[in-house]
Write a structure and sequence with these properties.
Blueprint: H1 2-30, H2 41-52, H3 60-67, H4 69-93, H5 105-113, H6 115-152, H7 162-176, H8 186-210, H9 225-242, H10 249-253, H11 264-294, H12 302-306, H13 310-346, H14 353-373, H15 377-405, H16 412-445
Helix pairs in contact: 2-8, 2-11, 2-13, 3-4, 3-9, 3-11, 4-11, 4-15, 5-6, 5-15, 6-7, 6-13, 6-14, 6-15, 7-13, 7-14, 8-11, 8-13, 9-15, 9-16, 15-16
Length: about 450
């Protein structure tokens, strides 16, 4: 009898494992990151453009004004090279273990630092980045809508609070946030990528048309040394924010099909190269021409400096709105994935449309509320740029690479990674100081919900 009982128990083990695997597969098929793996390489191109080329590009001439010609050009080019290198590392590490894909940033962190430590290192930083970007884009979208309203309706129009424009912008996301996964937002992402190239082109071509302003000055704007130093730090954060697409790279790569003969990294890298060419076409002309034309009098949004022709600036601001709608969704998708993973796997909720509807609406409402309460756009860029983006973009991939591949001491790979880590650490420490100072200065005169 005892022997038969043992045999029955053993025969149940495979069926229990099968049930668990089946349940695991059902959850994976429901979660936004792993539910669809049939993306083409060009999906990764425009997803990466949408993730990286944010409204931050419009603040690059202002960043240049605070950095100066020499340091500004060096930091812009260095950032482009370093972030392309760290992005290549992430693409390579996605499938470094045969038969396994690291679909999420924190999964790669767990491979590098261990199950628990990996989560604690990556998840807080990734959440600060993604939620931070969504809050900043709520502010950007609302303020851009307000600019359109103010430009179109100059006479006999009632002034409308920024708060209401942020709420109008948020209303779009209460609808779009229910698209289930990355592939389902590919149309929104493509439109956003086209818009980013369009408004960047408008910004620098309109600057060329306007011509170098009379009495243009290229010296530092701040009257005191401390002001110049703080502004320099803030500008570092603005540049870091401009190159902040790494937080969603693995999640984008997870949507590309992969086989042992044809791994996803080939398709993904093709998309990344195209995306980085577009990034260069957007960033360098806007930053350099904008600063050359307006000097240190350039506003923290170059479209404000341009003013005329009105119809063109209205169009550019509408393009910004469409672009940040797409960007918000790109950054929100990994957050939705984290929230839904916790709800289904940890709290054992059933994966239903109702659960998704409630959790995503709460997230959109939260980002809207924070954006309405603290709309300090320039300061937020500098603060989040340094505090959160510098680690995940500039040096966390390098630390993971060193932990996993263990290159030989003082080899080219070892030296390159350590240079990136040191530069990234400096960026992380210095830029939030300037951003926080700007937030404090703006907060002094700010009235809530104005």
């Amino acid at each position: 009898m005892g022997v038969e009982g043992t045999t029955d128990e053993n025969s149940n083990i495979p069926s229990n494992i099968d049930k668990r695997l089946q349940k695991q597969k059902e959850i994976d098929d429901w979660l936004p990151i792993t539910s669809s793996r049939n993306a083409k390489w060009w999906y990764s191109a425009f997803h990466n453009v949408t993730a990286m080329v944010g409204a931050g590009v419009l603040s690059l001439p202002y960043a240049m004004a605070n950095l100066g010609w020499g340091p500004g050009v060096v930091i812009l080019v260095l950032s482009w090279v370093i972030t392309l290198y760290t992005l290549w590392q992430m693409v390579e590490m996605h499938e470094m273990v045969p038969g396994k894909r690291f679909d999420r940033y924190h999964e790669l962190g767990q491979q590098a630092f261990g199950e628990k430590l990996g989560l604690w290192i990556v998840v807080p930083q990734q959440l600060i980045c993604e939620v931070g970007v969504d809050i900043v884009y709520m502010v950007t979208g609302g303020k851009s809508l307000q600019k359109v309203h103010n430009l179109v309706c100059k006479n006999n129009c009632k002034s409308i609070k920024t708060t209401y424009f942020i709420m109008i912008f948020a209303s779009v996301h209460f609808v779009l946030s229910h698209l289930p996964n990355f592939n389902s937002i590919s149309g929104v992402s493509l439109a956003a990528a086209v818009m980013s190239l369009s408004y960047s082109t408008i910004a620098w071509t309109a600057s060329v048309h306007k011509g170098v302003q009379p009495e243009v000055e290229y010296g530092y704007k701040a009257s005191s040394t401390s002001g110049t130093v703080f502004n320099f730090f803030t500008a570092l954060g603005d540049v870091a924010f401009a190159y902040a697409g790494h937080n969603v790279v693995l999640e984008i790569q997870a949507t590309i099909p992969s086989t042992p003969e044809k791994p996803s990294k080939g398709q993904m890298w093709k998309g990344v190269v195209v995306a980085y060419i577009v990034v260069a076409l957007c960033y360098f002309p806007v930053a350099l021409i904008g600063y050359y034309v307006f000097g240190n009098n350039v506003e923290d949004d170059i479209l404000i400096s341009l003013e005329k022709p009105t119809w063109l600036i209205v169009a550019a601001n509408l393009f910004v709105v469409i672009h940040v709608i797409g960007s918000y969704q790109i950054y929100a998708m990994p957050v939705f994935d984290m929230i839904e993973t916790v709800l289904v796997r940890k709290l054992h909720f059933r994966p239903t449309i109702t659960l998704r509807f409630i959790s995503r609406n709460i997230y959109v409402a939260f980002t809207m509320f924070v954006a309405i309460t603290f709309p300090f756009f320039g300061g937020l860029l500098g603060f989040f740029g340094g505090f959160a983006f510098a680690p995940t973009t500039y040096f966390l991939p390098c630390i993971m690479w060193l932990a996993i591949y263990k290159p030989k001491k003082f080899s080219l790979s070892w030296c390159t990674n350590w240079i990136c880590i040191i530069l990234g650490l400096l960026l992380m420490i210095l830029s939030p100081i300037g951003g926080l100072r700007n937030i404090i200065l703006q907060a002094k005169t700010y009235k809530f919900y104005s």
